[in-house]
Structures are given as C-alpha cells and as structure tokens.
Amino acid sequence: MKYKAQVFWGYILLLFVLPMIVANFTSKVNQEKTIVAEQYESKLEQMVVEPSNPEQNVVLEEDKDNFKQDIVAEQNKVNLEKDVATQQDKDNLKQDTVAEQDEINPEQDDTKQLEQPTVKQTEPSKALVLFTHSHEAFIPMVKSENGKTPVYHANSNIMEFEGVIKNHFELNSINTEFLGVDTMTEMKKTNRNFSEAYVVVRPYLVEQIKKSNYDIIIDLHRDSAKRDISTLNYNNETFGKLYFVVGEDNPNYSSNKVLADKISTKLNELVPGISRGVIGKKGNHVDGIYNQDLSKNMVLIELGGIENTQDEINRTISVLSKAVSTVIQEPPIENKVLSDTKTISN
Questions:
Q1: Which whole-number Å values give the CA distances from 345 to 170, 174, 248, 284, in the listed order?
Q2: Quick one: 169 and 87 in the same domain?
Q3: What is the CATH number of the domain that holds 206?
Q4: Three-state secondary structure along 81-95?
C-alpha cells in the first residue's frame, strides 16, 4: 500500500513538474539563439549593410575598380608584348631564311641586281648602194694632169667611199651591199653614151633585187655644183651638201618621194641645212625614172659637189647613215605627194 502511494505521487510529480522544467529549458535555449542571432546580425550590418564610415566604403569600391582596370591593362600589355615578340620572331625567321637562301645560292642575288629592262633586239636593216655614174670625181681628190683636173676619173672617183659608207652604215645597224658593176667602164666597152647609163646598169640592178630584199636602195652621185653651193659650214666644220632626185615619169613615184622627203627632213634635223631638199624630174632630156620603178624604197642622192674635199664627204656620209637608219626603222606611213617637193621639167 505504501508502495502504491509512492508511485501515485511520482506520477503527479511528472505531470506537473516535468512540463515546467522543459518549458524553462526551452526558454533558455531560445534566449541564447536570439542573442547569437542578434550578435551575428550586428556584425553583418557593420560589415555590409550599415558601415560605420560610408566614405571609406566608396574608396574601397574605387580601389576595387582601379585594381580591376590595372589587372586588365597589365594583361593587355602582356598580350601586346607577346604579339610584338611573336611578330619579331616571324620577321627574324624570315630574314634568317632569306640570308640562308642567299648563302646557298649567292649568284642568284647577283643576277637579280644585274637584271635590266628587257630591250627588244631589232635585226639590222639592209641597204644596197650603187653608183650609176661610177667615175664621178671630186677635184681635191684627183691629181692634176697637165694643169687640168678632170671631174670624171676611172680610178679616183665616188666609188672610193665604199669603205666609209659601209662602216658608218654598220655603226647605225645597216648592213650594206654594193652593186658589183662599174657602170661607166661597161659603157665604154659597149660604146654607150653618157645618157644611157641608167639603161646599162638596170639589168645588174634587176638581178640583184631578185636575189635579196632591201630596206633601202641608194643610187649615189656627185653633183656638178661649185663649192659655194655644195658646202655647208656648221659648228666650225664643213660638210658637202646633198639633195634627192625623184623621177616623176615613174607611175608610182609617190612612194619614192615620201621616202626621200623623210630622209631629207631627218638630215636637216641632225645638221640644219645639210640637205638641199627633194627635186622631181620628168620630161624630155632627162631620164625621168632613174630605175626607181624597180623599188618604192629606192632613192637617188647627189652627194656634195665637184670641189668638196674627202673629209667633207666623209662627214656628210656619217650624218646620212644616221638619218637613213632612223627613217627605215620607223613604221611605214601612207604614201602621199609632199607639197615642198620641187619639180623640174625639161
């Protein structure tokens, strides 16, 4: 019975006292949690939400931005230096490669340095020269015989200038051939008159033209004019003047006139006054054709006069070779009769 009473009062104690103990403990625990939470919030507010010094917080933010910018700038600088170094490495590598190539083949570099613009090489022109009046002579070159000096001579005559003509023409890119006939000697053999000279030389000329093509054919003569007409003084030197004769009885003479006029013009460009111009001849008492009907590239030139010296004729030949070379290497022009050509009718 006593035991039962004790158990009864024990249950009573648990029912009333234990809840109070639990409630008291819970209250203390909650108070501690609240205190801890308040302390945490206070520290958090001090650090983030409510700083004790607002200006200091702004400075810190600026420092962060500046620090970030410095980092970016430094990174860009590093990247730039890296790119520059890389490009320098490429350039150095390229230079080293070129240097090595030059060492391997040094002659190639020399060749590059010596390269010159390509110049088109033109073939030499080709000329045929003949002397229809082969014994025409120059008084200063012929020895006097019995106090008289002939103007025609079998040995000392215009044919003596073959070597000078050939040399000067070759210097101006013209290969020159000479018609292999002494016309006036052939005339004597067959008792021909002087006026028949063009008839005598014609078959020789025809045969030669069949063998080869020529850029120009020149029938060279010596004029009968005296020194005051046939001589030019230019730059303290004297020259034998020359002029051109065109046979206007030739139906196709216009081509010959064009060529003669072009050479005459070029001569006077080189040495003003050295050419007396172009003269056309036709009608009675003259040949009127001068074998120019055989080629449109044929001209008859009267070189100097009976009183011109060998040196004067040599100088004129030099100028003539330059003029002829220039003209025959020009593109062909339309044939036309030029107005400044003189015509002599007999």
A1: 37, 35, 9, 8
A2: no
A3: 3.40.630.40
A4: HHHHHHHHHHHHHHH
Same domain, 84 and 166: no
How many whole angstroms from its chain centre is CA 344?
47
Number of domains in the chain: 2
Residues 6+ apart with CB under 8 A from 328: 125, 127, 174, 215, 216, 297
| 316: its two tokens | 């004129």
The domain of 18 spans 2-103
Answer whether residue 292 is part of any domain: yes
Write the CA distances from 234 to 237, 240, 242, 267, 271, integer angstroms: 5, 11, 14, 13, 7
Cα distance from N-terminal residue to C-terminal residue, the chain: 194
**Gap between the Cα atoms of 297 and 295, Å rounded:** 5
Could you tell me if 296 and 210 are in contact, meaning their C-beta atoms sit under 8 angstroms apart?
A: no
Residue 342: φ, ψ to 5°:
-85, 145
CB 253 within 8 Å of CB 292: yes
Q: Tokens 């060492």 map to which residue?
A: 103
pLDDT at 32: 57
Q: Evaluate whether residue 219 is within a structural domain.
A: yes
- Nearest residue to 219 via CA among 244, 254, 249: 244
Q: What is the mean pLDDT of each run of 10 residues along the chain (346 residues)?
A: 61 64 61 55 48 45 53 53 52 53 48 47 87 97 80 95 98 97 96 96 97 97 97 98 98 96 98 98 94 97 97 98 95 46 48
Q: What is the dihedral of CA 217, 220, 225, 227, to 10 degrees?
A: 110
